[in-house]
Amino acid sequence: MKKLFYFMSLFLGLLVSSSAFVACGDDDDEKDAGGGQQGGGTTTTITEKDILGTWYGVEESSDKINVFVMAFYEGGRGYYAEFKAKAKNNWEPRAEESVDMTWTLKDGALTMTFQAGEKTEARRGDILAKNADGSLKVKRYLEEGTDEVILKSIQNPQEAYSILYELVKNKQGDNNESQPATTNLLVGTWSFGDAAFIFTERGLTIMQGKQQVFKGEYIYENGKLKYVEGDVVNTARVQLLYDNNVLVLVTIPDNAEDYSLGEAPVILFRNGQAPEMSANDVQGTWHWYMGGQEENYIRAGVMISGNRIEIIITPWAERHVGTFTYSEGILHLNMTEFYSARSEDGQGWGEGGIDPTTLECDHWYPVSKDDIGDHLPETMLFVAGPNEAYGYVVGLPAVFVKK
Length: 403
Prior knowledge:
Blueprint lengths: L47 H4 L1 E8 L3 E10 L3 E10 L7 E2 L3 E8 L2 E8 L2 E12 L5 E7 L2 E10 L2 H16 L6 H6 L3 E5 L2 E5 L3 E6 L2 E7 L1 E3 L2 E6 L2 E10 L4 E6 L13 E6 L13 E6 L8 E8 L2 E6 L4 E10 L2 E11 L24 E3 L1 H4 L6 E6 L3 E6 L2 E7 L1
């Protein structure tokens, strides 16, 4: 999915807390399927083969939930990740960045070493029992003492995110009664070009051409789509336009200031068919801001009046003027006038005389198309909503704000 989206929402840096270990099990009187001990100490009947795979455990209190994931691979390799939600953050599910780990198991004693950046930490636990349901009961050794936790097997980290979501719903009282009706608007096939998103009630499949690049569960609530891809929780604002026949997924970067493009849209049509669109829909002045920061730096401006269009590309100090026709969300450009804010031949560096906060320029130098280069393509995807427009500028995804 990273091929179709810029990172929607990258994992946050993992804080390997002393309480973040591995665990799983059942109540104390559960029979040990492998004949292991029921209490303190370790069970020598647990082998490396018994713990290979991906496991999750839950830490829960009145103000936070942590679903932690441990993956054990052959050769003593694996990884650790966390999925969290806190009351102070309105129970918004979030994912931490996964970290690599190494592990050893000897006589039921499990030792793991985590590598988080330059910091290395070790954790230890005793596997007390393998229960009849396949879960593991583990005694953890923490800085503040010991506790016992249960580890349960899952197929992939996406399942852990779904588990967190269900736990969060319980915290919130599961008052999302409008959610199914809203989700139903997504169900079906949406595509544009070689990208296709196929939604069922809970599942999402993403295709790029004939290649399946993602398949798993998703969460859609409060206007946001979320799904887990590998060790990344992808998040997008959902915009439904043209009587729910145009779907725009606007990626939400973890920190727009760290990524100059800011939010990035993916534009899709229901069943691949563009609805009827009019040039009246795109009239006005539209600004694309650097890093999504309004009133700071306008990366590009699109000004449309009637069939006249003007496009200013600030970092290149260029202004293109001409006419257009509009169909199926595409601007078909016929640019006839070209200007530079740098010099008479367009040579120079930076924004020239453009004020990037307003796009005003003291002097536009008329230049030839050859002077500034053939930067703009003849067609430009541009779909407008009431307050935002979505499209591409010289191949870069852009979210425009209407002024």
